[in-house]
Amino acid sequence: MTEASILFFRACLALLAMPIYLLSFLGIWEPFCRKVFFPFFLEKLSAIHERKAKKQKQELFRNLPDFASPSGELKLLEIGTGCGANFQYYPPGCKVTCTDINPNFQQGLLRNMNKNQHVHYERFLVAAGEDLHQVPSGSVDAVICTLVLCSVHSVNGTLKEVLRVLRPGGAFYFLEHVAADHSSWKYFWQQICYPTWKLVFAGCCLTREIWKNLEQANFSELTLQRTSIALPWTPIQPHIIGYAVK
């Protein structure tokens, strides 16, 4: 399809979302989104995503214990913890440091912490993925990041911080929605939705080719698969899943 048709449909979608664009222009939407809308929406989406991706996540995190330190201790750092949807997959007794740039997920986070008391929660840091200065270099055995790299300011900057905080031989686990094949209708739909989706959903970018950033980062080993999560009527079905070793 031509660039003109993409722009036309983008304009139609922007008209439908005009109240949000107006609130954004007035400086009202972003604080409301961060404090109220996005935490509410993310908890609902996480519940749906969990049902659809449960088997893939169980398989992904199955080998987490293999990355425990020689003492047997397993220290995890989660970037963009949100409501804590991944806690159920972590091995008993592991120590988790949670980080998120948005501190407004307390209710959902507390619910998941209470449900998953097999995990030892060390601390919660308000931090962006590109700036984890509160975490010492080489101090964690594994970093987990799911549905987060779509909205960080810099994917490469975040991966650089991941490599810094991981100990040698540690692993980075990821599950991210990505750009669809450029010749597909899904990609056409992603291009149409992109500006409005990014505004409404707190900076989420639909067309990032995150596999390229992972391939170019300085990991010694990369295990990556493409998969599709059945989320009908959404532009976020194509995903990549896997782990990379420092």
Automatic annotation (TrEMBL):
Residues 77-174 form the Methyltransferase type domain. Pfam families: Methyltransf_11 (PF08241). CDD domains: AdoMet_MTases (cd02440). Keywords: Membrane, Transmembrane, Transmembrane helix. One of its GO terms (molecular function) is S-adenosylmethionine-dependent methyltransferase activity. The chain crosses the membrane at residues 7-29. PANTHER family: METHYLTRANSFERASE LIKE 7A, METHYLTRANSFERASE LIKE 7B. This is MET7A protein. It comes from Fregata magnificens. The lineage of its organism: Eukaryota, Metazoa, Chordata, Craniata, Vertebrata. The gene is Mettl7a_0.
